[in-house]
Amino acid sequence: MTQSESCDDDPQTTQEQILQATYRALHRYGYAGLTIQRIADFTDVSKSSIYYHHEDKDELLLAFLERVLRDVQAGFEIEPEHDPVADLERFLERIFASIDPEPATEALPIGAYVEIRSQAVSNAAYRERVTDIDDALESQFRSLLQQGVEQGVVKDVDVGQVSEYLLTTIVGTLERYATTDEFAVEVVRAELERYLEHRVIA
Amino acid sequence: MTQSESCDDDPQTTQEQILQATYRALHRYGYAGLTIQRIADFTDVSKSSIYYHHEDKDELLLAFLERVLRDVQAGFEIEPEHDPVADLERFLERIFASIDPEPATEALPIGAYVEIRSQAVSNAAYRERVTDIDDALESQFRSLLQQGVEQGVVKDVDVGQVSEYLLTTIVGTLERYATTDEFAVEVVRAELERYLEHRVIA
């Protein structure tokens, strides 16, 4: 393959490389320590090319939130086993597996996500992306629960209400994991299972 | 009362006035818009006196988190009716009542709290305070549930596990309320009731 055919010239690939490097820089330095130089250090893409794609850090972080949205949509898309309860369990398992004290560099940098997410309080563009991320997760819960109700393996619950509740617990789990000391993720996970057992699974 | 005896000279009262004004300024301008001048505009305490008590905005926000901790400890201290389930319901009622689109100026400014809380990701002093706030709420849940188990009105659950789970859902509720559009607090509240009914209350 000649230089001109290389992936580096494909804008979409360059953008993907920048975002992968952003994930890595956020894992290493956190949100406060993120600079364009540090992102450039994790990729072959030049600083000037990063500036060409993203005019400032704010615009780059919006692209980060869009990448989180795509990861949520793609990464948690379970190959359906046509057993909605098993699929729900695997879906939750994947979400909790992302809360890892030694995460892979391609995993969601949870602390940075919590910090960036908090900017949605006062920034409408961030707020729109965060709402989309929550909606994407909620609709996956809803779809699995709906299938479960139809197959009689989930109780006849308000699937929208249960989905909102599950998502809220997960958002709280990420928040407490990122902002407090000695938070026991596995304790919350265990009680979530009791909730499903007593209230949701038929 | 002579001038020298007035409350204004009591350092504790001055500090309280500064913190009340900080709550008001956070309600009006949010975290990003908070300045010492804007705090001074909400109180008779002078800017120089605010600087005397708090050397910078960071130090002032630590005092804000300590005030949140005291509010959590005091404001949710229910007069016990010696009916732990009713007390638990009233405790949750007070927490959810604080999520109000038109909050009183003395109420917790939730958006600002979420933004300030997120700094605990990378700031150890903030993290310590946020951990204390979560612990204070969790221990109040734990105490009510323990009384309920002893009186036979709460199932023989792991009270620590249930308390952590309840708190996590509440933290998620605050976070989603502050960072997304069209979040339906009452839907999460309704499902929380179903959880208590099916899993916790005897």
From TrEMBL, chains A, B:
Gene3D superfamilies: Tetracycline Repressor, domain 2
One Pfam family it belongs to: TetR_C_6
Record-annotated HTH tetR-type domain positions: 12-72
DNA-binding region per Swiss-Prot/TrEMBL record: 35-54
UniProt keyword terms in alphabetical order: DNA-binding, Repressor, Transcription, Transcription regulation
GO molecular function, one term: DNA binding
Name of the protein this chain belongs to: Putative transcriptional regulator
Source organism (scientific name): Halalkalicoccus jeotgali (strain DSM 18796 / CECT 7217 / JCM 14584 / KCTC 4019 / B3)
